[in-house]
């Protein structure tokens, strides 16, 4: 059951995206942060190093991003809502342990403020090149939820949501921000009260506790805290309901299926999409993250020129919101996917969209922020 | 037999264990449990964290809060647990590859912070789990699955490394001298800070077979012949010390412990606020 809490500050505020993320994490109850400095995520760590001790929480700067990821998983098992924040190179380093978090079902939030890559790339330039890595970066099939904010307000809201999903799903959640939303400052309205979810703890006797067993019809097992008398085992090997290694294919197959269904079964609840002027439009712009800002402006400019252009955006990248492409109005001839990479989201859109609709893309990966004119230029070519 | 005192710390339903006959891991684990028994620990308040390797499978066999992590990473997980719950006793059981190769960076940093962890490294001079490749603890000249012509790399001295990095308790023993181990465990856990215990042991199946020590008894004899105490060591020349290992409680010093310093920091910030 969600709790209603009062955020530390509310009302109309002026904030930076990274600040809004740190504030939201604290409001959601995060009390353990481990990280390693990297542009453009560093403000989150800096702010939390100042704020966490004031709330009796802990901040630690670890020796690298792998260690940061390990530390938040350890703290989460000891009962704390935990988070780390990084960018491309650090996100790459975290991958192995993100998979451990998924298999061992340890709730945590990983913020990746994307910057231009590959490798060290352009550290201060915006990009959205980690869309596929956020889904498939760690080895093996695994469940994951990835959220993408397009404004400072969404940095706040989606960070709270990320914790709520992580804790109620017993799974890592990735907040895939980008340099623009992380560094920009704008007005943000923080409500008087927000809903916060906590993980479900076992309510049975310790001898009966099985850390990976679920009730019939449920997908999320209950999680006890280390030190609270339940004495369970967590292993990165495939395991049975009691948490001990097994190589029985019926057990490991069922485990993996349950993990995937955990996300699938609640996909509606995790799908955050928005749209405008799609009804009657010939062309629909689509994107996520800061790109949405240019998409909205381009739609206005196109409409001013008499073109029938609408837009859709998603704040949930994974699971991908297939459903919004499946029942588009008959008027829609073209979807124009706008993104700051050489084409990642566009593959998903092609997969989800019926063949009769053409899918085209504006794909920019040279370090400049995608502009309304970049989008307009393509609208003029593909509009029909 | 003599398992009576420590049976309560074992998950007997998880036996038989996966270790080969003649492996040193069981000898070490048993002695670690004897140490914990001397301390009369509350099993609910002990967390055992391990990495990946034969030695790291120890975590699954003991009845505490147990966490079998990824290769090389038990110390970061243990760091998170200890910071989240400073009241818990946190032990790391790891292998020489796990701790000193892939996990080497975490090892020196946890020692530098003097975080209150007890790290028991089971040093079998090789990567047992993956069939005997050389590790950062394989002696120069020894053979390994990936050193078919003999190892040309020098090994680490883990104890001197821990001391240099800031560990406040450092000890070494072997699976032959294992009667020392329970007391070392007692002192390591009591030490408020980072403690390292290195236990030199044998992997007769891979290291032994490739180095003419395939009989587990020969491995124990090798440990007996080459272990010396600090006093003997102080009288030997560098030439004479080659291939020997110094055993005993090698280092202790007082230093601020990380979680205690953190609590002081929190207190200070609270006072400033009020
Ligand atoms: C990231 C990663 N790299 C490599 C491996 C393969 N691997 C598993 S155990 C191991 C070495 C274990 O050696 P050690 O820690 O000395 O333990 P032992 O098996 O000798 O007890 C290796 C290389 C792995 N599991 N994960
Ligand atoms: S391979 Fe070596 S270290 Fe592993 S269980 Fe067998 S003897 Fe022990």
UniProtKB/TrEMBL annotation, chain B:
Q: Which InterPro entries match?
A: 2-oxoacid:Fd_oxidoreductase, THDP-binding, TPP_enzyme_TPP-bd
Q: Does the keyword Nuclease apply?
A: no
Coiled-coil stretches are: none
| Keywords, ordered alphabetically | Oxidoreductase
Q: Which Pfam families does the record cross-reference, listed alphabetically? A: TPP_enzyme_C
Q: Which GO terms describe its molecular function?
A: oxidoreductase activity, acting on the aldehyde or oxo group of donors, iron-sulfur protein as acceptor; thiamine pyrophosphate binding
Please list the GO biological process terms of this entry. Answer: cellular respiration; small molecule metabolic process
Give every Thiamine pyrophosphate enzyme TPP-binding domain span. Answer: 52-199
Query: What is the name attached to this protein's record?
Result: 2-oxoacid:ferredoxin oxidoreductase subunit beta
**Which taxonomic lineage does the organism of this UniProt entry have?**
Bacteria, Pseudomonadati, Candidatus Omnitrophota, Candidatus Danuiimicrobium
């Amino acid at each position: 059951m969600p709790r209603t809490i009062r955020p530390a500050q509310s009302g109309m505020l002026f904030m930076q995206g990274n600040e809004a993320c740190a504030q939201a994490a604290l409001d959601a109850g995060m009390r353990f942060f481990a990280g390693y400095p990297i542009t453009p995520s560093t403000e989150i760590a800096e702010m939390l190093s100042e704020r966490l001790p004031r709330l009796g929480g802990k901040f630690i700067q670890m020796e690298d991003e792998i260690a940061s990821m390990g530390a938040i998983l350890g703290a989460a098992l000891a009962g704390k809502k935990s988070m780390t924040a990084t960018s491309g190179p650090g996100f790459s380093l975290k991958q192995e342990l993100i998979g451990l978090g998924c298999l061992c079902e340890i709730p945590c939030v990983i913020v990746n403020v994307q910057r231009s890559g590959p490798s060290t790339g352009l550290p201060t330039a915006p990009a959205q090149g980690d869309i596929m890595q956020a889904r498939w970066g760690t080895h093996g099939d695994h469940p994951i939820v990835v959220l993408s904010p397009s404004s400072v307000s969404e940095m706040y809201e989606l960070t709270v949501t990320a914790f709520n999903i992580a804790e109620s799903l017993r799974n890592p959640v990735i907040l895939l921000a980008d340099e623009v939303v992380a560094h920009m400052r704008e007005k943000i309205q923080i409500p008087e009260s927000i809903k916060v979810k906590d993980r479900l703890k076992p309510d049975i006797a310790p001898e009966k506790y099985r850390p990976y067993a679920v009730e019939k019809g449920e997908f999320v097992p209950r999680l006890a805290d280390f030190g609270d008398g339940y004495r369970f085992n967590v292993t990165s090997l495939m395991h049975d309901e009691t948490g001990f290694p097994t190589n029985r294919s019926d057990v490991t197959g069922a485990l993996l299926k349950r993990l995937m269904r955990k996300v699938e079964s609640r996909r509606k609840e995790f799908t955050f999409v928005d749209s405008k002027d799609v009804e009657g439009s010939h062309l629909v712009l689509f994107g996520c993250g800061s790109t949405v800002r240019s998409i909205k402006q381009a739609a206005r400019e196109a409409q001013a020129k008499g073109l029938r252009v609408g837009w859709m955006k998603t704040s949930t990248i994974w699971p991908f919101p297939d459903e919004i492409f499946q029942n588009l109005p008959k008027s829609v001839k073209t979807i124009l996917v706008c993104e700051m990479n050489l084409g990642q989201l566009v593959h998903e859109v092609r997969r989800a969209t019926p063949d009769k609709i053409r899918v085209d893309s504006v794909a920019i990966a040279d370090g400049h922020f995608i502009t309304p004119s970049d989008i307009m230029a393509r609208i003029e070519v593909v509009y029909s | 037999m003599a398992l009576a005192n420590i049976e309560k710390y074992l998950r007997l339903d998880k036996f038989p264990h996966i270790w080969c006959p003649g492996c040193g891991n069981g000898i070490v684990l048993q002695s670690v449990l004897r140490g914990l028994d001397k301390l009369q620990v509350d099993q609910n308040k002990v967390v055992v964290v391990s990495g990946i390797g034969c030695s790291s499978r120890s975590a699954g066999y003991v009845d505490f809060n147990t966490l079998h992590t990824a290769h090389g990473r038990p110390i970061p997980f243990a760091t998170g647990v200890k910071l989240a719950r400073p009241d818990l006793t946190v032990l790391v059981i790891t292998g020489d590859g796990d701790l000193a190769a892939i996990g080497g960076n975490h090892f020196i940093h946890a020692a530098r912070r003097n975080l209150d962890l007890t790290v028991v490294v089971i040093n079998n001079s090789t990567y047992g789990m993956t069939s005997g490749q050389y590790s950062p603890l394989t002696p120069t000249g020894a053979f390994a699955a990936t050193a078919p012509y003999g190892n040309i790399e020098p090994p680490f001295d883990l104890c001197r490394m821990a001391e240099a990095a800031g560990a406040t308790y450092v000890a070494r023993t072997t699976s032959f001298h294992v009667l020392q181990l329970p007391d070392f465990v007692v002192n390591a856990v009591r030490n408020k800070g980072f403690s390292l215990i290195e236990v030199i042991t044998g992997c007769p199946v891979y290291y032994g077979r490739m180095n003419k020590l395939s009989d587990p008894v020969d491995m124990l004899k090798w440990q007996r012949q080459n272990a010396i105490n600090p006093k003997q060591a102080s009288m030997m020349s560098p030439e004479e010390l080659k291939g020997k290992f110094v055993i005993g409680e090698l280092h202790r010093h007082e230093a601020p412990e990380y979680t205690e310093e953190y609590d002081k920091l929190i207190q200070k910030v609270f006072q400033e606020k009020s």
